[in-house]
Amino acid sequence: MRVGLAGAGRIGAGHAETLRGLAEVEEVVVADADPGRAREVAGKLGLRAVDGVDALFAAGPDALVIATPTAAHAELLVRAVEAGLPAFVEKPVAAGLDETIKVLAAIRGAESPVQVGFQRRFDPGHVAARDAVRSGRLGWVHTVRSTTFDPAPPPDAYIPTSGGLFRDCSVHDFDGVRFVTGREVAEVTAAGANRGAPVFTEHGDVDTGSALLTLDDGTLAAVSATRYNGAGYDVRLEVFGSRDSVVAGLDDRTPLSPAGEGFHPAGLPHAGFLQRFAEAYTAELRAFVDVAAGRAPSPCPPEESLEAFYVAEACEISRRERRAVTVEEVRR
To answer: Domain Gfo/Idh/MocA-like oxidoreductase N-terminal, which positions (predicted)?
Structure first.
């Protein structure tokens, strides 16, 4: 299989290395808006680089992985589907809700499968938590807690186009909660705060946020995120039931310290999401190869991505207007 890779930035370079290591992938062709960056990534990994996405499509790949900045996702995804190429696209499918719905309408009914990159669906801890819920071992679930704590904010230039903390960061938690519990979010109440760099306030964003989600069976899910977790990168999901509880993401690299005596991490915290989810990124691209080969359905079709985006949109409205918002209110 020959795979085209659009985007050679941080996550694109990571995907390039992963794809190179998959036995079924015979060739990886890399393109980027900056041809020099594509050549640099390809050169380090022994891959082929081409000058731009037109050349990438002309190279005749069997499948396409889209890891460009968000603004280019929609156009590339529609182009891939129209060309009959199975496509993997990093979240989000598009920068905004209306554009996402337009993209889904444009590709609806197409034969080419699409997989959206919500890598937590392939994280061993999240998968184990889902299995525990589905088996009934936890009893009935009453509380879920999900956190995404970045050790430092992204570059200032990223903030204006990020979509905001809930759409850019917490959307992974929203998808994770839906994936693990198997339930839909009915209503949200969200709040945000800024105590860090002024760039967040300047662009109507927040550097820290929390949301209380009420699921359709009455389960409560608390989601928290921040750009300023000095202890290190920390992503966990805890599920509490009437019989037992489980946690994903708690190990000797979790940046937690007890106030008194107790568990102390034995290793250094993960530097960021590429390290924390290295196993998950490999598993999701391996799954995409199966999807592209026609051996399996997409484990995260665009419609699933849209549901998480609806929750993020509801949280953003709730934060701005200081009120509870139902997901039905934002559904198109």
So the answer is: 1-118
